[in-house]
Amino acid sequence: MNGAIAWCRAAALACVVIAITLATSLAHATSPPVPDATTPLRVWHAYRGAEQVALDALLQDFGQELNVLAIPYDAFGSKLAAAIPLGEGPDLFIDSHERLGDFIHRGLVAPMPAALIDSGAYVHSTLDAVTLPDAVGTPRAWAVPLSMKSLALYVNTDLLSDVPTHLEDFHDLKETLPDGVFPVAWEANSAYTHAALLSAYGGALLTEDGGFGMHGPAATRSLQLVLKLLDAKVLPDDADGALVTDLFRSGKAAAVISGPWLAGDLPASLRYEVHRLPAIYDAEDHTGKSPAFMRPLLTVESLMMSPRGADHPHVAALIRHLTSAEAGRRRASDARALSARIDAAPAPTDSFLRAFQDQAAVATPMPAVRAMRAVWEPASRAIRKALRRDAQPARALEQALQRFRDVRRPPPPPRDPTILLTILGASSLLGALLLFHRARQPELRARLRASLPAYRYVIHGVILVGLLVIGPILVGAATALFAGQPHQMYYVGFANFIDILTARSGPLLSSGSFYVVLLVTVAWTAANVILHLAIGVTLALVLSRPLLKLKSVYRVLLIVPWSVPSYVTALAWKGMFHRQFGAVTGIIQSVNDVFGTEIEPIAWFATFSTSFAANLTTNVWLGFPFMMVVTLGALTAVPKDVLEAAEVDGATPLQRLWHVTLPMIKPTMIPATVLGSIWTFNMFNVVFLVSGGEPDGTTDILISEAYRWAFTREARYGYAAAYAVLIFIILAAASTAGARWIDRSKERA
Amino acid sequence: MVNVETQGLRKSFGDTQVLKGIDLRVPKGAFAVLVGPSGCGKSTLLRLLAGLEQATEGTILFGGEDVTAHAPKDRDVAMVFQSYALYPHMTVRDNLAFGLKLRKTAADIIAARVTEAAAVLGLEPLLDRFPRALSGGQRQRVAMGRAIVRRSKLFLFDEPLSNLDPALRTQVRVDIRKQHDRLGATSIYVTHDQVEAMTLADLLFVLNEGEVQQAGSPLDIYNNPANRFVAGFVGSPAMNFIDGCRISSDGASVLMDGHALPLTAPEHTAADGLADREVCLGLRPHDFELAAAETDALSFTPSILETLGPEVHAHGALNSYQGVIAMPAEVGLQRGATVHVRPTRWYVFDSETGVTLR
Amino acid sequence: MTARAIANNVLSHALLLVAVAFALYPVLWVVALAFSGDSVPTARAIPVPTAPTMDHLREVVLTTRADADGASTWLFGQQLANSLLVSIATALVGVGVAIPVAYALARFEFVGKSGGMATLLATQMFPAVASAVPLFIMLEAMGLLNTRTGLILCYASTSVPFAIFQLRGAFETIPVDLEEAAMVDGASRFEAFVRVVLPVAKPAIAVTFLFAFMTAYNEFILAATLLSDESMFTLPVVLQRFIGEYDAQWEAFAAGALVVSIPVMALFYLLQKHMVAGLGAGGVKG
Ligand SMILES: Nc1ncnc2c1ncn2[C@@H]1O[C@H](COP(=O)(O)OP(=O)(O)OP(=O)(O)O)[C@@H](O)[C@H]1O
Ligand SMILES: [Mg+2]
Fold this sequence. Notes:
The structure holds three protein chains of three kinds.
Chain A: H1 2-27, E1 41-45, H2 49-61, E2 66-70, H3 73-83, E3 92-96, H4 100-106, H5 124-130, E4 131-133, E5 139-141, E6 143-149, E7 152-156, H6 169-176, E8 182-185, H7 191-200, H8 217-231, H9 241-249, E9 253-258, E10 272-275, H10 281-287, E11 297-305, H11 315-323, H12 325-335, E12 338-339, H13 351-361, E13 364-365, H14 376-387, H15 393-408, H16 418-439, H17 442-478, E14 482-483, E15 490-491, H18 495-501, H19 514-543, H20 551-563, H21 566-576, H22 583-595, H23 608-636, H24 640-648, H25 653-681, H26 684-691, H27 702-712, H28 717-748
Helix pairs in contact in A: 1-17, 2-12, 14-15, 19-23, 19-25, 20-23, 21-23, 21-26, 23-25, 23-26, 24-25, 27-28
Chain B: E1 4-13, E2 16-26, E3 31-35, H1 42-50, E4 57-62, E5 65-66, E6 77-80, H2 92-102, H3 107-121, H4 136-148, E7 154-158, H5 166-183, E8 186-191, H6 194-200, E9 203-208, E10 211-216, H7 218-223, H8 228-233, E11 240-247, E12 253-256, E13 259-262, E14 278-283, E15 288-290, E16 298-307, E17 311-318, E18 321-328, E19 339-343, E20 347-350
Parallel strand pairs in B: 3-8, 3-9, 6-7, 7-8
Antiparallel strand pairs in B: 1-2, 1-4, 4-5, 9-10, 11-12, 11-14, 12-13, 14-20, 15-19, 16-17, 16-19, 17-18
Helix pairs in contact in B: 2-3, 2-4, 3-4
Chain C: H1 3-34, H2 55-61, E1 64-66, E2 72-74, H3 75-107, H4 113-123, H5 128-141, H6 148-172, H7 176-184, H8 189-200, H9 202-217, H10 221-226, H11 235-240, H12 250-282
Antiparallel strand pairs in C: 1-2
Helix pairs in contact in C: 1-12, 2-12, 3-6, 3-9, 6-9, 6-12, 7-8, 9-12
The complex binds adenosine-5'-triphosphate (ATP) and magnesium ion.
């Protein structure tokens, strides 16, 4: 009777699981509801500040109810990719044109009807930028250009009266400027900015035929020039966008290369002008052409339409509204956006926009093809590596080329899944038979009956965990056998695993290969767990001293790292490790001042060991409070009489700690340590946010590699899933071995 | 008040059989004590009676009603745990009232019963304290009180005194018996302390290895142990056992070291076929008297003397065996000074089965 | 006090002060940044705001949105409410689902128990990078995309296993005698669980609740990806909006971070006594 109920329950559970699985697999087969005139159009964008205000005002004037959403830039791409295929995305969205190649590939955009683009009204290059071949190779316009953004030269007119025509001229300005003021600043580490220099030498990040352009003589020479400027302190080290802004804002840089967004951060009191980027003498020597102007990359912010939006009756009206000349003029005046329309060109008196217009005229539209996505990571790494002088520029760029090819490798060919299906079918049949057989054994049935009361307590948890945790994990693990985009995946067998385990047919011990990264990951986990334990246990022991005063004050203060959102504090740590302006350097300088020592500031992210140490410091800081609290709790459970007995036995405090306290808290500490190790092994955000894998990807751990494959490289989910499965196997093997070892040592004890 | 009976009660944990067919009969209002060495299954038996464990086989009857399959809450028993198991999140008052609240007893009745139990046990000043603020003895009394307020028909005690100091133990022992008599309920009490068992019990069950070795009044068991185990377990100091003795060929006496102890007392009804049998001789320490150095007396040389006031327990060599003898203090035993003693009573056990031969 | 005890005391305080300095230093930088009017890039050792101002704090807290009908909604307040709602619901679901499961794991023997425990531990080993997309597709199939319920379910997928581990350890430290006493006193097993075990495990439950709350309260990637309505956003998503494609408003970001962490700090402060006992009682028994 009871047994029958148990089987009914199990069967019901199985049905629910199967139903959900079916529903999910059918999800993309069912078409989303067809929008009609009454559903408000959905518009998504990532604008902030004045740009958002201007856009909102424009949308308000449209007169119809709209559903507008401003999304954090960091989440914009992944949100589009997740929502549009499910029919949940926007009808219209605004993004940079260079994403188009990828969007087309993933089916996130619909072609723009020719009637909506008044081709005579646009700056020609912007139309080129949004025109790309469709699936059969016919060129089509996929978006309507809205505005153009590029870098230009901001000059502080209080510091510089003449604007140098050539980049090298800034070198000579060093003497004339006050102490501590950089003649010029830009994000030297960024491939986006460096592309402007490269162009002066006749190069480009991506060659015409879709190859990697950031190598060869032009790229090498451009890097050598930057090195020279860095050496001469004409240019600040390791400048990121925020630093460039701060330097210019506070008058510590006479000129900076930045985009229109900088203007919003500048105080009204600052007097500045915007000019075209200068030329480069060295490039003139190199190319023989004169003048050799720096030509920045041009980004065309465009209005794109999702396949769902294409069906909406009012979409054309809204597109016309948003891309009209009037709209362009309004966005220019309210948000300082340089319109892509010729008839919304800035007034001659508007020197700011005029300057950007001049610059845009000679800028190179960023390639929109998918291959471009694979350029950034290797190019930036190579630039950073060369500028840190870790390698000769030529050598660093050669490695970048290698890495680019690595990422761009064609995906593995489809395989016939018959073998897999046969094996799966056979094994599930076998499993079912075995289960059936076992279920008939009276002993098991008796035990099942005895288990019934317990099942009443766990059944809901089993369903929930099964659905929300195990189901997705199984599906996720299964994607490791597939390649292609989420909704057009095809079976490739174990190709992803073979690829990873053979280090993509490169040398097995080269940087970035699975084995090297695994080694780093193990070192990372071990170092973290040891430090967490050492610091946490020590502090807990001190805090549990009976005579200590202010205990609870210390306890609260020491818990603080745990309570502030970790993405904020991780970024704070990254800032503190900045070579020139970080707090750690500040401390070193104070020490130098006070003690008269001459400690050099450390370039934390320049070498593996210091970069690893920076990551480690951050994660130890984040994690020690947890261990401390766990230990404090465990210590309250250590009976005093045992310690007293040991004291009577003549044990010294250290002996008591070692022979009594530690063994007694071990049962609590071991599980906490096991979970802590697992979490640390998969702790990607510290690595991602602090070192970002620097230098040269050496501090990346397995999980951050997996993330890169899934999100920043070619969106190879199958490949990332294969990494995830390997991580799982390693952790499972390690914890099984660990459990064995603990059991054995228990037996010995 | 209820009589308790078990029939062929068996309990196994996995492959290990802990109780091997227990037949108990506890009449209404009796104070029954289960005694036995550690691990013999006393607690398990008690937990079966409370319904905290399910029997593998056999039946439990309360007042003739089969309660084997009843849940603990439906058995109306009260239990005092060895650890007291006071609810740490409740005050003493709430601890006492909890069982009644669960049974939806009216608030005024609860208050009256709690007050009464508190008065009886001297808990009044402690009613609003939490268990963590009580001493061991106070906790024990709260645990008792919790059982008392319930007015159950059956009280179960699992070694309730083992966490108390000896002086308190004696006092609480008396209290428990008093409460039992006052409430007139049936009580089943588990202990491994045979002094407690002897002093409290109306009815004593001696358990070993999951079996009842003997049931009866304490005195009866003391005087007529059913086997060597019971004989050794009941009585303090424990009985001296002398292995390798022999029944004389006429079956009229038992031979120890060449001494013949006649099997004439009523407890040794010499049976046929015992002649020449190898047996074990049992001599209680208290069953010796001093004797002249005659041939049939045993020599005893004390090596350790335990003086208990009126009485001395002497450990030493009894002829060629090690043994214990209890003598009044005024006899003046001296360490190393050999005396002669004569057993006044003796038991004979089968060498192989340990069964008492009578 | 002996000289030795004094020396020990001084040493303890010195050690703790160093640790406190280490713990607070980066946070103080966040505070300094939040109140800085303009940041002049200089390497400094002491975190003090330059040109102190409350502007950023005000900007973050006072965000409003003009509605179609002319009225304006206090957006920040709404989003704070969302954050609290989602986090509390996540914690409630996590702890609520986990409590009976953890109890069964701590108290009952049943077929599949050890297998279940091993599976649960195994789920902690599989990186979310590969399971997020399937989870998403499933939520969409259930029509829960762009709903707070969907988000809560997503978070529950991490908070439930954690809470089960945490609470199982806690229940194991509670003596079985207590429940048995209650059962003899007239409670059913379930009543004994509810009226005796749960109250006794309260500290551990509170701590587990706090942890589950935190995972949801600080998360932004899932929230930003799942929610498509500004009035449903949680605070971390709002914070993330201060970081743009080309530039970031770090000061506002820091100010927002401070505001966001105030409720958590307050909870920590209230629960810290329990936390020590709770976590210890719970241990994180795996
Ligand atoms: N849940 C259980 N699972 C397996 N074996 C058990 C269980 N409970 C008790 N036992 C075993 O059953 C036997 C009897 O245990 P029980 O607790 O009844 O002993 P006891 O007579 O009360 O001993 P003590 O005087 O030491 O309390 C012991 O060997 C014990 O190891
Ligand atoms: Mg016992």
